[in-house]
Design a protein that fits this description.
2 helices, 7-stranded mixed β-sheet, disordered N terminus, Uma2, Putative restriction endonuclease domain-containing protein, Restrct_endonuc-II-like, two-stranded antiparallel sheet, Nuclease_put_TT1808
Length: 135
C-alpha cells in the first residue's frame, strides 16, 4: 500500500475514514484521498478528493453492493473496491458513467489488482493480501 505521502509518484495521498457526500457521510473501511492528512484536520474529504474507496464485506455485502456502490457512483468516486470475504475476491468498480458504475471486475484470491489514482498506476496489490487469513 502506498504511504500517506507519495512524493516519488508526484502525488500526496492520505487515508481517511469518513467521506462527505451530498446527503450523507458514509464511513468506508478505507479511502485514499488526494493531498496530505493535514489537509483534512478541519474537514472530511469531499467526493472530489477521493481516489479510491474500499469496503471490507461479509455481513454488509448486500449494502456494499447496492446502497453504498450507488452512492459512491453518483458522487463520482473513480474507484470502489469491495473486498468480499465470503467469496474471497475483490469486486473492483471503476469510472462511473451517468452516476452508475459499469459491471465490476472480479479478481480472485490468486490475482493482483492495480492501484490507480488519476490514471497513474501506483503499483499492484495481491488480492490475497487484502483478505483475512484462513484459520
Amino acid at each position: 500500500m502506498p504511504s500517506r505521502d507519495r512524493a516519488d509518484a508526484g502525488r500526496r495521498l492520505a487515508f481517511a475514514r469518513r467521506v462527505r457526500g451530498s446527503r450523507s457521510e458514509p464511513e468506508p473501511d478505507l479511502s485514499i484521498v488526494r493531498g496530505d492528512i493535514d489537509d483534512y484536520t478541519d474537514r472530511h474529504p469531499a467526493p472530489a478528493d477521493v481516489g479510491l474507496i474500499v469496503e471490507i464485506a461479509d455481513s454488509s455485502l448486500a449494502r456494499d453492493r447496492g446502497e453504498k456502490r450507488d452512492l459512491y457512483a453518483r458522487a463520482g468516486v473513480p474507484a470502489y473496491w469491495i473486498v468480499n470475504l465470503v467469496a474471497r475476491q475483490v469486486e473492483a468498480h471503476a469510472l462511473p458513467v451517468g452516476g452508475a458504475y459499469p459491471p465490476a471486475t472480479i479478481l480472485a484470491e490468486d490475482q493482483t489488482i492495480d492501484l490507480v489514482l488519476d490514471g497513474q498506476s501506483l503499483g499492484r496489490i495481491d488480492v490475497a493480501d487484502l483478505l483475512a487469513k484462513r484459520p
